[in-house]
Each structure stands twice: as structure tokens, then as C-alpha cells.
Amino acid sequence: MPVVLQLAYYLPRFLQLFDAQKRHHVIVMTLISARRRRQEKVGDVIDCAVPRCYVDMLLSLGLGDLEMVSLCWEFMNAAAKTTTTALEWIMARLVLHQDTQRKLLDDIATRAGGKNPGTGSERPFVEAVVLEALRLHPPAHYLLAHTTDRDVSLDGYVIPKGSVVNYGVGDIGRDPTLWTEPDVFRPERFLEGGEGFVVRGIGSGGGGGRTLKMMPFGAGRRACPGAAVALKVLQSFVENLVTRFEWKPVGCVGKEVELDMSERPGLVTEMRTPLHARLVVRTKQERN
Ligand code: HEM
Questions:
Q1: Are 171 and 39 members of one domain?
Q2: Quick one: which residues bind heme (predicted)?
Q3: Are residues 22 and 145 in the same domain?
Q4: Domain count, the chain
Q5: Does the beta carbon of 54 sit less than 6 angstroms from any atom of ligand 1?
Q6: Going by fewer Cβ within 10 Å, which terminus of the chain is more open, N or C?
Q7: Which domain holds residue 125?
């Protein structure tokens, strides 16, 4: 296609993109300016009633507005879509596996009561549920592109300097040489004695020791800096959602609508059909 036609084809999209960027800039700058005014009024105090936030730290580095806006967007985009997508997959799994949902509720109740963990494992069952869902449904099926700064030798292959390297995160989690029955949702594999107990989800990128059995947050120096927050947030949301509501499939008893667990590939891999579930408020007795 001639260059002029190509430009004409992409121009409307570029204009839309510029417009979206302008709106993003205005929204984020409003928030940054509010923090700047506050700092001018009370100073960059650490031990005041309002805690020091990410923007305060950026301001203290003396960065320019454009750079701060870009960093804030990177954080917001990287944090929100990935975490909400992971939560949707986890809740879909709990709708599909009612036995796991009941076991989770029991484990939460026994732990809250200070009794021995219901699953007999030191790892809370909710953590196992979150990890198992991230293994099967990592929101990012590929990482951000990485590159080699020198020739690297790996398993007898040479990856030349300057190669663009990426990983099939989704495939690693379902590798049959690493996981038994990899397509089966079984959170118990992450409990003590299970093949996934070594996996921490963070640190070495989700591997456990030197073996990368899964890497939903990437690995190494450029691994997700929000992994620890994401895992805590997910566990807290799942615990609260399951304690307050019973999550059931839509439809009446015996005629439940089957969940569509297929994926919509993209930068973030979402559920092709967004989750629809029937929520029933749990009674106080059920919660305890
Ligand atoms: C379930 C939730 C999340 C998943 C699955 C996830 C996954 C990832 C992955 C795979 C990468 C690329 C790593 C690489 O290329 O090696 C990444 C990068 C990043 N994530 Fe997350 N993330 C999540 C939540 C968060 C949260 C909550 C934050 C912030 C609070 C965050 C901030 C970032 C940032 C800033 C980067 C870019 C790091 C860099 O370029 O060095 N993420 N994330």
C-alpha cells in the first residue's frame, strides 16, 4: 500500500490516540497538582495523618510533568487491568468448582477461629486458589519484550546479542513436564506436599528455587514490581467475596448456564464471555 494511503488509513486512529492521551494527561495532572499544592502547604512530611504516596515520591525526585504522568499511567494501567482480570478468572473458577468454594469457606472460618488450618497446610487455601488460577489463566500470556545485551548460551542454543526475547507464560503454566494433569484446576497442588508448594508467586518471578514452574509476574530484574501487592489484594478480595456471598452459576437448579471459560487473547487475556454469576448472601451461620 502506498505510504500516503497508509497514513490516510491510520490517521483517524492516531487522532483518537492523541485525544485519549490528552484526556489522560489532564486527569493525571489534576491529581499530581493536588499533591503538589498539598506539599507546598504542609511540606513533604512523612509522618503526618495523610500517608506519603507514590506521587509524593515522584515530586521529591524533581521529575518533569510529562515523565510523572507517564509513570503514573504505567502504574495504573499495569495494576488495574491485570488484577481485575485475574480476579474475574478466579471467581469464574469458584463458580465452576463449588467443592473448592466450600473448602475455601471452611478454611477461612477455621483460620479466623484460630483453629488448625482446615486444609492441614501452613499455606492458606485462598493463596493456593489464587496461585492455581494464575497458573491456568495468567492475565499476561506474554511478557514485555526483553533483549539480550550479549550472546547467551542456553540449553545448547546460542541466543545472539540484541535478540528480542519473550516467553510463553501461558504455556509454562500448563507444561505437562512440570505439572501433573496441567489442565485440571486443583489448588491442592499448591499445599504442603504438593508439586506447587515450592512456588511463591513472587521473588524469582513465581518459580520456587531455580525452577520456573510458572511466571505470571515475569522473572528477574524486570519482573512485575507490583506482584506482592497484587497477590495480597487478590487474596483479600476473594476471601471477602466468598465469605459474604455464595457464588453460583446463572440459571435455575438443574438448568444452570454453562460458563464459557475460553480466552480472548490480547495484551491482557480476558474471559471471552465476561463472568455472569448468581450471588446469594450468606447467612451468619454459614460464615462461621
Ligand atoms: C495479577 C496482577 C498482575 C499481573 C499478572 C502482573 C503481571 C506483570 C507482568 C507479566 C509484567 C512484565 C514483566 C516482564 O516483562 O518481565 C508486569 C510488569 C509491570 N507491572 Fe505488573 N502485574 C500485576 C499487577 C501489578 C500491580 C498491582 C502493579 C502496581 C501496583 C503492577 C505494576 C507493574 C509495572 C510498573 C510493570 C513494568 C515493570 C518494568 O517495566 O520494569 N503490576 N506485570
A1: no
A2: 224
A3: no
A4: 2
A5: no
A6: N
A7: 78-287
The pLDDT of residue 119: 67
Q: Which ligand 1 atom is at minimum distance from the Cα of 74?
A: 35
CB-ligand 1 contact for 222 (6 Å cutoff): yes
List the chain residues with pLDDT less than 50.
203-208
Q: How far is 175 from 168, CA to CA, in rounded Å?
A: 10
Distance from residue 82's CA to the centre of ligand 1 (Å): 8
- Convert the pLDDT of each residue in 176-227 to its tens digit: 999 999 999 999 999 999 999 888 765 444 444 556 789 999 988 889 989 9
23 and 90 in one domain?
no
Does the C-beta of 77 come closer than 6 Å to ligand 1?
no
Q: pTM of the prediction?
A: 0.84
pLDDT of residue 205: 43
Tell me what pLDDT residue 204 has: 44
| Residue 224 marked in a binding site | yes
Q: Which residue among 28, 62, 96 closes a domain?
A: 62
- In the numeric block, which cell numbers belong to residue 215? 511466571
38 located within any domain? yes
Same domain, 113 and 250: yes
Q: Are 175 and 263 part of one and the same domain? A: yes
